[in-house]
Design brief:
This protein is α/β, with parallel strands linked by helices. 47% of the residues lie in helices and 14% in strands. It has an eight-stranded mixed beta sheet with strand order 3-2-1-4-5-6-7-8, with helices on both faces. It is elongated and about 65 Å long.
Length: 259
Amino acid sequence: MEIVFIGAGRLATQLAQSLAENGHRIMAVYSRTLASAETLAGLVGASATDEIASLPTEADAFIIAVKDGAIATLVAQLAEGRAGQTFLHTAGSVPMQVLAVQGVSHYGVFYPMQTFSKERRVDFSRIPVFIEGSDAATLDLLRTLAASVSRQVTELSSEARRHLHLAAVFASNFTNHCYALAAEVLSRHGLPFSVMLPLIDETAAKVHDMLPADAQTGPAVRYDTQVIEAQSQLLAALPQAREVYDVMSKSIHGLRVER
């Protein structure tokens, strides 16, 4: 397929490269910052621009991979002079209908559920992709496009995808923030974050075989109040970390009691 990318951030960088490696032609890349567009375009053999008007008027798909709040504005600009084209966004929490502006009849969602960085390549074949389309033709296009890069493609409504994205925030973003808090505690005492890696790896590995609640360990699950209070006191100089510690400890114990 011939594809135009709107956005040159982390997700766009990984997805555009994976699509190009699987036989698709990336025609052009747009970014508000020309240098960013040129960087991604250089990786996939595309043209680069910071002007919507300079983009091709026809392609098999225009993929909008930008921050959530910019999607509606950009699709309205893209729709001018591109009647009949297919527009897709990649956001987890934005409904498909945001693309249903005047002049757009084919639209949908291509949501790869993964955390992305520009510098770190990912194996897209292992990433679940959730799709939604406005009509049968768009769904067929999405299935073909997604299946070309991923072994796990699932059709999902906008409402269900909102909850999926919420769960992903807990599983990835909040977990990574806990890593950052742990790194801060360690650095204050001259310890490298690398000492946590075997523990992190085993914790992640366990939930491949166990329910997360069954894999839970530590003082909170036992509700060892003496240890919990002592550790909370150790965080007196880090009040935000202390608040997270106290709330998380109560949540862990509460979930165990409910079970």
